[in-house]
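By way of example, we now present a protein record of this kind:
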Amino acid sequence: MEYIAIVRERAAPERLMRSSWTLGMGRLLGTARELLACRLEVLDARRRGRSNAGQRAALLKRVSARMGARMGLQARVSGPVPSGACLLVANHMGYLDPLAIGAVLPLSAIAKSEITQWPAVGEALEELGVVFVERGSTMSGALALRKAMRVLQAGVPVLVFPEGTTTFGGDVLPFSRGAFGIARLLRVPVVPVTIRYETSLACWVGSATFVPHLIRLHKRGSVNAEVIFGPPIEPMAFPDASSLAAATRLCIRSLVLP
């Protein structure tokens, strides 16, 4: 009897691990199915001649809300939520960031090209209007900015994370200037967006792999986030894109630092 009790005691963590892994994969597969369904909807609308940037942005909002719910994301929103063409600029801590913001308003986003390699996910997001850029490639960056300009000209907000990488949220890294140049060129407002999480577990940083991180989030049950929209910044009030980027970073940083 004593031996059986010891075996059961050792087996329990293994069962818990298998259960968590299964549920984590279930979340991932559910997200992929949702993306695939929306992709098919976009393709059908395109076949009927009814696909446009606004429709794709609305679908992406729906997907963001459902994906966030699957991952236990609960976001509290404050500040003036913008409408119409604007450049949404946010600090970046992980894959929950675009879900937290994208669930609030229809938008497009600029994302790293590595996501295109995720099975089902990459192609679906591209159909939903996400613009992908290859980090370190000047040509890819220029092409992504041209695509983002067309989205803005269609009246759809574009979300960017100009830190270029993720952090644990203790500070805000310097911003790259690229997207701020198109805001000045098109004279669309820049809207600073600050994201804060109640736990660093929400941060996906460095060499952390996706599925194990997703499982750890599942074990927590839910993740509370705060999304703060700042007042719009007039891009032509600054002499160049670099100074506009620096001023936007200061706005976000003032709410990130204690």
Residues 2-47 form the longest helix (46 residues). The domain at 2-256 is CATH 3.40.1130 (Glycerol-3-phosphate (1)-acyltransferase). The beta strands are 73-78, 87-90, 108-112, 131-133, 158-160, 190-197, 223-229.
